[in-house]
Design goal:
With about 400 residues, this protein is α+β, with helices and mostly antiparallel strands. Helices cover about 40% and strands about 25% of the residues. Strand 17 and strand 18 form a beta hairpin.
């Protein structure tokens, strides 16, 4: 048997694979030829599993080698059938496809046609005239190779998107390192890219920070981080960083306007997306921390207190169809002192399923880990929490992206 056309001529890289790439040039018999002719062809081509039958150059059937040989070897069959037309043992309804049929369409046709198309193969024609045959095994191999190449290209694109997403966050991480000597920021997307993002910026009189969890994870979540972080950046330029609640309102309006989530709109919004977020403003002179949260929270541990305090934000997300365009978030003011520890995270930490009863990690275990490591640097304290998280998760599937922001207030 000759090689496939794809192997002999080389398929151009820019062209999508099609039936012609599977075409094997094999001899065919005509409807006027006899079963003796079929026997002769099969004897000359020992590796041929099926033999096409044509009429006036157009394919009309396939003869399966195994079925033909088993029939013709029966007593008296050669005497009865050898001189008769080969159509006696022909499959009169084989799968016939045009050479230009796409790989996707060919796959659907083969599956729809059933097992016979995979075992016996199929006939390939051009403008109705016989060209060659295709084998089910070759089709499956090409589908697998094509899918593997597509997956490789997709993963290459996602890897590159990850570089872009990390580059966008690098400025904030660098500003955090310069501004807060005892702070730690952990950003771990569940997939290569993620739906969590953070923002940090230093000013003469203080600093602003944001930790946000956008709808979804992976590529959809990453798209939402681009939208949300861009709107936040514009709001910071217009309003400044000192009113976290007002910034949440501005981002809420921006997301709803961009995604068409507007009350009274005649059209049904196509997106019910948004984010949960914690926005912070820290005043250097007074050491006051202003916190506004949209379905977010933070832990506060003062150096002279035994228990950890919890500050909850409002139970309303930013964006989303069911949130009000003019919802007003509140600023919560925390008076911090040298040694005060602040800890916040996205819900990828709290909601992770694990443990012997397969329940959520929860906030209690976070508080216990913080208390047990209250005098450790922020990086070590965060690591202790995440170590407990990993133990709790065990073999359970990772549920979500995870971001942790932890810092200790130091002497001025």
């Amino acid at each position: 048997m000759s090689q496939t056309l794809a192997e002999t001529s080389g398929r151009p890289r820019f062209r999508q694979p099609c039936a012609e790439d599977l075409c094997i040039t094999v001899p065919a018999v005509t409807s006027e030829q006899t079963n003796q002719d079929v026997t002769d062809v099969f004897n000359r081509h020992r590796d041929m599993a099926t033999l096409p039958v044509t009429e006036n150059g157009r394919p009309i059937g396939l003869i399966n080698r195994s079925i033909f040989m088993s029939q013709i070897s029966k007593p008296f069959y050669q005497e009865l059938y050898n001189r008769k037309s080969c159509i006696a043992f022909m499959d009169k309804e084989p799968l016939v496809v045009d050479a230009g049929t796409s790989l996707e369409a060919l796959t659907f046709k083969a599956v729809e046609f059933g097992e016979k198309a995979l075992s016996d193969g199929f006939i390939i024609a051009r403008e109705g005239r016989y060209l060659g045959i295709g084998l089910g095994l070759h089709l499956m191999r090409l589908v697998a190779d094509t899918q593997a190449e597509r997956n490789r290209q997709i993963m290459h694109s996602i890897d590159y998107a990850s570089n872009i997403q990390r580059a966008m966050l690098r400025t904030s991480r660098s500003a955090l390192a310069r501004t807060l000597p005892d702070a730690n920021l952990v950003w771990e997307p569940r997939d290569v890219v993620g739906g969590d993002f953070y923002h940090f910026a230093s000013y003469e009189d203080g600093w602003f920070a944001a930790v946000a969890d956008c709808t979804g994870h992976g590529v959809p979540g990453a798209f939402m981080t681009l939208i949300s972080s861009s709107i936040l950046g514009q709001a910071l330029e217009r309003q400044g960083p000192r009113d976290p609640a007002a910034l949440l309102m501005a981002v809420n309006r921006g997301i709803k306007q961009m995604l068409g989530q507007i009350e009274g709109s005649a059209e049904v919004p196509e997106s019910d997306d948004g984010m949960d977020a914690a926005f912070f403003w820290f005043d250097n002179a007074s050491r006051r921390l202003s916190f506004a949260g949209a379905r977010s929270w933070l832990f506060v541990l003062h150096p002279d207190e035994a228990a950890i305090g919890t500050v909850d934000g409002e139970r309303v997300g930013v964006g989303y169809i069911d949130s009000n365009m003019d919802f007003i978030w509140a600023n919560h003011t925390i008076q911090t002192h040298p040694g005060t520890v602040i800890f916040a995270s996205t819900d990828g930490l709290v909601d992770q399923i694990g443990g012997p009863r397969e329940i959520a990690f929860g906030k209690r275990r976070i508080r216990e880990a913080i208390l047990a490591n209250r005098d450790a640097p922020a990086a070590s304290l965060s690591r202790a929490v995440l170590d407990q998280y990993q133990l709790w998760k065990g073999d359970q599937r990772r549920r979500d992206d995870l971001t942790v922001f932890c810092f200790r207030v130091l002497e001025s």
